[in-house]
Design goal:
By secondary structure, the chain is mainly β. The protein has strands spanning 14-20, 33-34, 40-41, 43-50, 56-64.
Amino acid sequence: MRLHHLQGRANKGYTTFGSIWEKGEVTSLNFKLQDDKGISIPVQSRVMAWWPDKSIKWSAHTADASLLSD
C-alpha cells in the first residue's frame, strides 16, 4: 500500500488509514510503515474485522503525519 499527501492538507498531527485484505493473506499484526527513503515510522495497528478462518479482513493504522514524506 502506498500513502500520499493530499493536496492542501497540513503535514501534522496523526493520520489514520485502513486496508482490506484477501481471505488468508494476513494472519498477524506485523505491519511496517516506511517513508520514501525506507526509514521506519512508528505505526499503531489494530484488527477491525476477521475472516471466518481467523485471518485479518480489515486493519486500521495510525501514524504521526509529520514523519511521513511529502
